[in-house]
TrEMBL record:
UniProt protein name: Activator of Hsp90 ATPase homologue 1/2-like C-terminal domain-containing protein
Location of the Activator of Hsp90 ATPase homologue 1/2-like C-terminal domain: 37-155
InterPro entries named in the record: ASHA1/2-like_C, START-like_dom_sf
Gene3D superfamilies hit by this protein: 3.30.530.20
Family stated for the protein in its record: Belongs to the AHA1 family.
The species this protein was found in: Actinophytocola xinjiangensis
Length: 211
């Protein structure tokens, strides 16, 4: 359990705003260090065999201008690819998202660290309408990315990610992740009452009470 929560604490989270072709966007931003070289981390992000072990199985034309699809329904276009430092994609959900161009983009930036490690930065910008942001705040996407980055850390540490955490560990991780995104939301100027309600809703969505 301590290792899982240490991974959660390793990430710095911020919420911001940005602009996409479809309009004003919210951003969730995650920054952390991985104890591996930049080429290895880039390979984990772009090699389909490794990508499926921490994100989801991927298919498509995996080169700039090509399109991709994940096993969970997310899909998009590869907008920018500069190995081993920058990868940017559009990030859409479900078939109806094809009618909403420019509504969601994910950019990952890597930089070599001073000790053979790598600085990792992920920015997910999305034009979010009711009820997602008003109900869940940045945790709507932020908790999901925290879970994926935990799996990435495990992969880089040599685990195969086939052993799931216990229900208690998973629920505690989600609870603390949602609370951390609540802190980022409040630091960005969120109303405390709205923030508290969003944290509660996000926690219930990702880790519903079995009762």
């Amino acid at each position: 359990m301590k290792d899982v929560l240490d991974e959660l604490a390793a990430t710095r989270r911020t919420m911001g705003t940005g602009n996409l072709p479809a309009g004003d966007a919210y951003t969730v931003e995650l920054r952390r260090r991985y104890d591996t070289g930049i080429d290895d981390l880039w390979d984990a992000m772009t090699n389909p065999e490794r990508l499926r072990r921490w994100l989801k199985p991927v298919t498509g034309d995996l080169r700039p201008g090509g399109t991709f699809a994940l096993d969970g329904g997310e899909h998009g276009e590869i907008l920018r690819c500069e190995p081993p430092r920058v990868l940017k994609v559009s990030w859409l959900y479900g078939p109806e998202a094809d009618t909403w161009p420019g509504t969601s983009e994910v950019e990952v930036r890597l930089a070599p660290g001073p000790a053979g490690d790598t600085e990792f930065e992920l920015i997910h910008a999305a034009v979010v309408e009711e009820p997602l942001f008003p109900t869940y705040g940045p945790g709507a996407g932020g908790v999901g990315w925290d879970l994926r980055l935990l799996s990435l850390a495990r992969l880089l540490a040599g685990h195969d990610n086939t052993d799931e955490n216990t229900d208690h560990e998973s629920s505690e991780f989600v609870r603390r992740s949602a609370a951390a995104w609540g802190q980022a939301h409040q630091a960005a100027g969120g109303d405390p009452t709205h923030v508290a309600a969003a944290v509660e809703a996000t926690t219930a969505f990702y880790a519903p009470d079995p009762a």
